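Quick one, C-alpha coordinates below. Sequence please?
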Protein backbone atom coordinates (compact mmCIF):
# COMPACT_ATOMS: atom_id res chain seq x y z
CA UNK A 1 0.00 0.00 0.00
CA UNK A 2 1.07 3.57 -0.69
CA UNK A 3 0.56 4.52 2.95
CA UNK A 4 2.89 1.77 4.16
CA UNK A 5 5.50 2.79 1.62
CA UNK A 6 5.32 6.41 2.75
CA UNK A 7 5.71 5.43 6.41
CA UNK A 8 8.74 3.27 5.56
CA UNK A 9 10.22 6.21 3.63
CA UNK A 10 9.71 8.43 6.66
CA UNK A 11 11.41 5.86 8.90
CA UNK A 12 14.35 5.70 6.49
CA UNK A 13 14.76 9.48 6.47
CA UNK A 14 14.63 9.71 10.24
CA UNK A 15 17.11 6.86 10.66
CA UNK A 16 19.57 8.34 8.16
CA UNK A 17 19.46 11.74 9.82
CA UNK A 18 19.88 10.20 13.28
CA UNK A 19 22.83 8.25 11.89
CA UNK A 20 24.41 11.52 10.73
CA UNK A 21 23.95 13.05 14.17
CA UNK A 22 25.46 10.02 15.88
CA UNK A 23 28.48 10.17 13.57
CA UNK A 24 28.90 13.88 14.32
CA UNK A 25 28.61 13.18 18.04
CA UNK A 26 31.35 10.55 17.86
CA UNK A 27 33.66 12.94 15.97
CA UNK A 28 33.38 15.93 18.32
CA UNK A 29 36.82 16.98 19.54
CA UNK A 30 38.82 19.88 20.91
CA UNK A 31 38.10 21.92 17.78
CA UNK A 32 34.64 22.60 19.19
CA UNK A 33 36.14 24.03 22.38
CA UNK A 34 38.56 26.16 20.36
CA UNK A 35 35.69 27.48 18.25
CA UNK A 36 33.69 28.33 21.36
CA UNK A 37 36.69 30.08 22.91
CA UNK A 38 37.09 32.17 19.76
CA UNK A 39 33.39 33.01 19.51
CA UNK A 40 33.19 33.94 23.19
CA UNK A 41 36.08 36.39 22.99
CA UNK A 42 34.86 37.96 19.75
CA UNK A 43 34.22 41.63 20.50
CA UNK A 44 32.48 42.34 17.21
CA UNK A 45 29.88 40.16 15.51
CA UNK A 46 29.76 36.56 14.41
CA UNK A 47 29.22 36.74 10.66
CA UNK A 48 27.65 33.55 9.33
CA UNK A 49 27.72 32.77 5.62
CA UNK A 50 26.90 29.95 3.25
CA UNK A 51 25.44 29.30 -0.18
CA UNK A 52 22.31 27.40 -1.20
CA UNK A 53 20.86 25.12 1.47
CA UNK A 54 23.88 25.83 3.66
CA UNK A 55 22.94 29.50 3.37
CA UNK A 56 19.42 28.83 4.62
CA UNK A 57 20.83 26.99 7.63
CA UNK A 58 23.40 29.76 8.14
CA UNK A 59 20.60 32.33 8.43
CA UNK A 60 18.96 30.29 11.16
CA UNK A 61 22.24 29.82 13.03
CA UNK A 62 22.89 33.57 12.92
CA UNK A 63 19.39 34.26 14.22
CA UNK A 64 19.76 31.75 17.06
CA UNK A 65 23.14 33.14 18.09
CA UNK A 66 21.79 36.70 18.09
CA UNK A 67 18.75 35.78 20.17
CA UNK A 68 20.81 33.96 22.79
CA UNK A 69 23.40 36.60 23.57
CA UNK A 70 25.97 36.33 20.76
CA UNK A 71 25.63 39.28 18.33
CA UNK A 72 25.48 37.79 14.86
CA UNK A 73 24.20 38.35 11.34
CA UNK A 74 24.10 36.54 7.99
CA UNK A 75 25.97 37.70 4.89
CA UNK A 76 25.08 36.23 1.52
CA UNK A 77 28.29 35.20 -0.26
CA UNK A 78 27.20 36.59 -3.62
CA UNK A 79 26.25 39.93 -2.09
CA UNK A 80 29.55 39.95 -0.21
CA UNK A 81 31.36 40.05 -3.55
CA UNK A 82 29.38 43.14 -4.50
CA UNK A 83 30.03 45.38 -1.53
CA UNK A 84 28.78 43.53 1.55
CA UNK A 85 32.33 42.57 2.47
CA UNK A 86 32.35 46.05 3.94
CA UNK A 87 30.16 44.70 6.74
CA UNK A 88 33.11 42.70 8.08
CA UNK A 89 35.54 44.25 10.56
CA UNK A 90 38.71 42.98 12.20
CA UNK A 91 36.74 42.58 15.45
CA UNK A 92 34.42 40.00 13.88
CA UNK A 93 34.64 36.25 13.46
CA UNK A 94 33.36 34.56 10.31
CA UNK A 95 31.59 31.20 10.41
CA UNK A 96 31.55 29.86 6.84
CA UNK A 97 29.43 26.83 5.98
CA UNK A 98 29.69 24.49 3.01
CA UNK A 99 29.02 20.78 3.21
CA UNK A 100 31.54 19.87 0.51
CA UNK A 101 33.73 22.89 1.18
CA UNK A 102 34.03 23.94 -2.46
CA UNK A 103 31.32 26.59 -2.85
CA UNK A 104 33.04 29.00 -5.22
CA UNK A 105 30.81 31.85 -4.05
CA UNK A 106 32.65 31.77 -0.70
CA UNK A 107 36.05 32.44 -2.23
CA UNK A 108 35.94 36.23 -1.94
CA UNK A 109 35.00 36.02 1.74
CA UNK A 110 37.82 33.55 2.43
CA UNK A 111 40.35 35.79 0.68
CA UNK A 112 39.05 38.86 2.52
CA UNK A 113 39.38 37.13 5.89
CA UNK A 114 43.01 36.20 5.15
CA UNK A 115 43.86 39.64 3.86
CA UNK A 116 42.51 41.49 6.88
CA UNK A 117 43.22 38.92 9.58
CA UNK A 118 39.59 38.13 10.36
CA UNK A 119 39.29 34.79 12.22
CA UNK A 120 37.54 32.11 10.17
CA UNK A 121 35.69 29.04 11.45
CA UNK A 122 35.05 26.52 8.68
CA UNK A 123 32.09 24.16 8.93
CA UNK A 124 32.42 21.38 6.34
CA UNK A 125 32.61 17.61 6.01
CA UNK A 126 35.83 17.80 3.97
CA UNK A 127 38.95 18.98 5.84
CA UNK A 128 40.94 18.89 2.59
CA UNK A 129 38.55 21.20 0.75
CA UNK A 130 39.23 24.85 -0.03
CA UNK A 131 37.10 25.92 2.93
CA UNK A 132 38.52 23.25 5.22
CA UNK A 133 42.08 24.38 4.57
CA UNK A 134 41.24 28.09 4.79
CA UNK A 135 39.65 27.88 8.24
CA UNK A 136 41.59 28.79 11.34
CA UNK A 137 39.37 26.25 13.10
CA UNK A 138 37.58 23.34 11.45
CA UNK A 139 34.21 22.10 12.67
CA UNK A 140 33.73 18.84 10.84
CA UNK A 141 30.33 17.78 9.55
CA UNK A 142 29.60 14.04 9.24
CA UNK A 143 30.34 12.42 5.89
CA UNK A 144 27.78 9.63 5.81
CA UNK A 145 25.52 10.38 2.88
CA UNK A 146 22.12 11.99 2.55
CA UNK A 147 18.69 10.67 3.41
CA UNK A 148 17.71 11.49 -0.16
CA UNK A 149 17.63 8.18 -2.12
CA UNK A 150 19.41 9.94 -4.98
CA UNK A 151 22.15 11.01 -2.61
CA UNK A 152 21.77 14.57 -3.92
CA UNK A 153 19.25 16.68 -1.97
CA UNK A 154 20.83 18.13 1.19
CA UNK A 155 18.95 16.39 4.02
CA UNK A 156 21.12 14.62 6.58
CA UNK A 157 23.88 17.18 5.99
CA UNK A 158 21.65 20.19 6.63
CA UNK A 159 20.21 18.58 9.76
CA UNK A 160 23.72 18.00 11.10
CA UNK A 161 24.70 21.58 10.21
CA UNK A 162 21.68 22.96 12.01
CA UNK A 163 22.41 20.88 15.12
CA UNK A 164 26.05 21.93 15.14
CA UNK A 165 24.92 25.54 15.02
CA UNK A 166 22.59 24.88 17.95
CA UNK A 167 25.49 23.28 19.83
CA UNK A 168 27.49 26.50 19.43
CA UNK A 169 24.58 28.72 20.46
CA UNK A 170 23.64 26.73 23.56
CA UNK A 171 27.22 26.29 24.75
CA UNK A 172 27.82 30.04 24.39
CA UNK A 173 24.56 30.78 26.19
CA UNK A 174 25.68 28.59 29.08
CA UNK A 175 29.19 30.05 29.15
CA UNK A 176 27.80 33.59 29.34
CA UNK A 177 25.19 32.82 31.98
CA UNK A 178 22.46 34.07 29.65
CA UNK A 179 19.25 34.39 31.70
CA UNK A 180 15.51 34.35 31.05
CA UNK A 181 15.50 38.11 31.51
CA UNK A 182 18.25 38.48 28.89
CA UNK A 183 16.18 36.32 26.56
CA UNK A 184 13.08 38.42 27.20
CA UNK A 185 14.91 41.61 26.24
CA UNK A 186 15.52 40.10 22.80
CA UNK A 187 11.97 38.75 22.44
CA UNK A 188 9.60 41.57 23.46
CA UNK A 189 6.95 40.51 20.96
CA UNK A 190 5.04 37.35 20.16
CA UNK A 191 4.45 34.28 22.23
CA UNK A 192 7.92 33.99 23.74
CA UNK A 193 7.91 37.60 24.87
CA UNK A 194 4.52 37.18 26.49
CA UNK A 195 5.47 34.00 28.34
CA UNK A 196 8.44 35.85 29.85
CA UNK A 197 6.46 38.91 30.95
CA UNK A 198 6.88 39.79 34.61
CA UNK A 199 4.37 41.13 37.10
CA UNK A 200 6.13 44.51 36.97
CA UNK A 201 5.22 44.74 33.27
CA UNK A 202 1.46 44.61 33.92
CA UNK A 203 0.87 45.82 37.48
CA UNK A 204 -0.93 49.03 38.45
CA UNK A 205 1.36 51.28 40.46
CA UNK A 206 1.66 54.73 41.99
CA UNK A 207 -1.63 56.60 42.20
CA UNK A 208 -3.42 53.67 40.56
CA UNK A 209 -3.01 51.60 43.74
CA UNK A 210 -6.01 51.52 46.13
CA UNK A 211 -4.30 52.02 49.51
CA UNK A 212 -5.75 53.09 52.87
CA UNK A 213 -4.55 53.11 56.50
CA UNK A 214 -5.77 50.63 59.09
CA UNK A 215 -8.16 53.15 60.68
CA UNK A 216 -10.01 53.90 57.42
CA UNK A 217 -13.81 53.73 57.72
CA UNK A 218 -16.38 52.13 55.44
CA UNK A 219 -17.04 55.36 53.53
CA UNK A 220 -13.36 55.80 52.66
CA UNK A 221 -13.02 52.14 51.71
CA UNK A 222 -16.04 52.29 49.40
CA UNK A 223 -14.90 55.51 47.70
CA UNK A 224 -11.34 54.27 47.07
CA UNK A 225 -12.46 50.84 45.88
CA UNK A 226 -14.96 52.41 43.46
CA UNK A 227 -12.58 55.06 42.11
CA UNK A 228 -9.62 52.75 41.52
CA UNK A 229 -11.85 50.07 39.93
CA UNK A 230 -9.65 47.12 40.89
CA UNK A 231 -12.15 45.48 43.22
CA UNK A 232 -9.91 45.76 46.26
CA UNK A 233 -8.20 48.03 48.75
CA UNK A 234 -4.85 47.40 50.40
CA UNK A 235 -4.54 48.23 54.07
CA UNK A 236 -1.20 49.46 55.42
CA UNK A 237 0.16 50.18 58.89
CA UNK A 238 1.89 53.38 59.98
CA UNK A 239 5.15 52.14 58.42
CA UNK A 240 3.53 51.54 55.05
CA UNK A 241 3.62 47.75 55.34
CA UNK A 242 0.68 45.81 53.92
CA UNK A 243 -1.26 44.22 56.77
CA UNK A 244 -4.47 43.29 55.03
CA UNK A 245 -6.68 43.51 51.97
CA UNK A 246 -10.38 44.23 51.47
CA UNK A 247 -12.15 43.01 48.35
CA UNK A 248 -15.65 43.80 47.15
CA UNK A 249 -16.55 40.32 48.39
CA UNK A 250 -15.33 41.23 51.88
CA UNK A 251 -17.57 44.31 51.78
CA UNK A 252 -20.63 42.31 50.76
CA UNK A 253 -20.02 39.75 53.50
CA UNK A 254 -19.61 42.51 56.07
CA UNK A 255 -22.93 44.03 55.02
CA UNK A 256 -24.72 40.70 55.23
CA UNK A 257 -23.31 39.82 58.64
CA UNK A 258 -23.69 43.16 60.38
CA UNK A 259 -26.55 45.34 61.55
CA UNK A 260 -26.82 48.50 59.42
CA UNK A 261 -26.27 50.85 62.34
CA UNK A 262 -23.06 49.02 63.29
CA UNK A 263 -21.67 48.71 59.76
CA UNK A 264 -20.59 52.33 59.43
CA UNK A 265 -18.70 52.10 62.69
CA UNK A 266 -16.47 49.37 61.27
CA UNK A 267 -12.84 50.12 60.54
CA UNK A 268 -10.63 48.54 57.92
CA UNK A 269 -9.09 46.19 60.47
CA UNK A 270 -12.57 44.82 61.26
CA UNK A 271 -13.29 43.86 57.65
CA UNK A 272 -9.96 43.09 56.00
CA UNK A 273 -8.42 39.73 55.21
CA UNK A 274 -5.22 39.51 57.24
CA UNK A 275 -2.03 38.29 55.52
CA UNK A 276 -3.51 38.11 52.01
CA UNK A 277 -1.81 36.30 49.15
CA UNK A 278 0.81 38.56 47.55
CA UNK A 279 3.49 38.44 44.88
CA UNK A 280 6.71 40.21 43.86
CA UNK A 281 7.54 42.37 40.81
CA UNK A 282 9.98 39.92 39.21
CA UNK A 283 7.62 36.92 39.26
CA UNK A 284 6.48 35.72 35.83
CA UNK A 285 2.89 36.64 34.95
CA UNK A 286 2.31 33.01 34.00
CA UNK A 287 3.04 31.93 37.59
CA UNK A 288 0.75 34.61 39.01
CA UNK A 289 -2.16 33.61 36.77
CA UNK A 290 -1.72 30.01 37.88
CA UNK A 291 -1.75 31.07 41.53
CA UNK A 292 -4.81 33.32 41.17
CA UNK A 293 -6.74 30.59 39.40
CA UNK A 294 -5.80 27.88 41.91
CA UNK A 295 -6.71 30.14 44.86
CA UNK A 296 -9.87 31.50 43.17
CA UNK A 297 -8.76 35.13 43.53
CA UNK A 298 -8.66 37.90 40.94
CA UNK A 299 -6.12 40.38 42.27
CA UNK A 300 -2.81 40.40 44.13
CA UNK A 301 -0.82 43.13 45.78
CA UNK A 302 2.80 43.30 44.69
CA UNK A 303 5.24 43.83 47.55
CA UNK A 304 8.83 44.89 48.02
CA UNK A 305 10.08 44.69 51.61
CA UNK A 306 6.47 44.24 52.84
CA UNK A 307 5.42 47.51 51.17
CA UNK A 308 2.93 47.54 48.26
CA UNK A 309 4.42 48.73 44.97
CA UNK A 310 1.64 47.56 42.69
CA UNK A 311 -1.54 45.57 42.11
CA UNK A 312 -2.02 42.98 39.39
CA UNK A 313 -5.52 41.92 38.34
CA UNK A 314 -6.45 38.73 36.54
CA UNK A 315 -8.24 40.79 33.90
CA UNK A 316 -4.96 42.59 33.09
CA UNK A 317 -3.38 39.21 32.41
CA UNK A 318 -6.27 38.06 30.24
CA UNK A 319 -6.19 41.30 28.25
CA UNK A 320 -2.46 40.72 27.70
CA UNK A 321 -3.40 37.43 26.05
CA UNK A 322 -2.81 34.87 28.79
CA UNK A 323 -5.31 32.06 29.06
CA UNK A 324 -6.23 29.73 31.90
CA UNK A 325 -5.91 26.00 31.50
CA UNK A 326 -8.89 23.90 32.48
CA UNK A 327 -6.52 21.67 34.47
CA UNK A 328 -5.32 24.07 37.16
CA UNK A 329 -3.49 26.14 34.55
CA UNK A 330 -0.64 23.67 34.20
CA UNK A 331 -0.63 24.49 30.51
CA UNK A 332 -0.80 28.25 30.70
CA UNK A 333 -0.24 29.71 27.29
CA UNK A 334 -0.43 32.88 25.26
CA UNK A 335 -3.12 33.35 22.65
CA UNK A 336 -1.42 33.36 19.25
Amino acid sequence: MTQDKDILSAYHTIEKEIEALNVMKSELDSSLVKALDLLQKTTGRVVVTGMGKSGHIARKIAATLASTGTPSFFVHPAEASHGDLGMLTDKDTVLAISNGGESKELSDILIYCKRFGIPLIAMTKNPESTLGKAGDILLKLPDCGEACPLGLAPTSSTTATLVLGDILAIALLERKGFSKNDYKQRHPGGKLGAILQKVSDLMHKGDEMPILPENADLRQITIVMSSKMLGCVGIVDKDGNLTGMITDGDLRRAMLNCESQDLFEKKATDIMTVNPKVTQPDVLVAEVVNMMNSKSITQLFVLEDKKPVGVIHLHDCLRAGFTISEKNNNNLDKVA
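The CA atoms of residues 201 and 299 lie 15 Å apart. The chain has two domains: 2-178, 199-334.
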